[in-house]
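S1.2 Input.
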Amino acid sequence: MAAPCRKMASRSYSQLLCCFSRTAVGSGACRRFSVTPIDRATPRASTAADRATSPWSLMAAVCLQRLPVITADCSPIEQRFKQMLQQMELEKSMLSDHELRLMEDAERMSRRQADDYDSDEDLGDQEIMMTQDLEDTWEQRLKNFQPAPRVRADVDEDLTSVQRCLTDSLVLLAEQQVGAEKLWLLPQAAWQEGETLRRTAERALDSMTAGVRATFLGNAPCGVYKYKLPKAARTESSVGVKVFFFKAILVDGTPGSAPTAPLLWLKKSELQKYLKPAYMMNVGRFILNL
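S1.3 Output.
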């Protein structure tokens, strides 16, 4: 048995295929097979002619988010957990330099009252008063400190202000002309020949708010929305529109020059009041409450 196996192993791959092919011809119950080369080349990129014949128009939109500026209020359980961590840190932490100085001053004062101290240690009341003065100064600063209000009714109600709702993440919406009506959408623009979809999204953002500083999160879109045109507006070369969304983060808290279109800064819970249901369903998948 070993000899036939060794003989078969010594044959080349092409000889084995020929052997199997001859066997398949002689047997009617066997199906002859052929070996076809596998093309492992990269998929063919769509050419300009392919895009020209596509009945779908391409657009790119940007989901610009302003991240929270301040932390949100702690819930009751978070507040209790915070107090527990602070107590554990206080019990296990080392004494600070100021606390050590206070202990040395108190010990020196007790020795002075008991007439059990060296004359070289007698530096007067200067050092003891200095530590006490520091604490008095800190206490006075704490009393005079007035924290900024976390809730500002006048600013929070202004939907056009990027400074509203500092504890929440906001999304930019722009009023744009779509057909015969104006809709609130994420800033979008039509794709032009020769540019990438991300460049189209950057151009859409620049056209709405000139000079805005934003950081785009990658070169790939985070979502896509496809819709068909009304039947009266459809043609053989134009059936609908595909919108590719890109995410970006607002870098500067104050956008650049005056916007060219009406803008709104909304929380995710407020988007459904301004967006169409189908559009909101697609957009809500990649908008996160950070």
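S1.4 Remarks. The chain has nine helices and eight strands.
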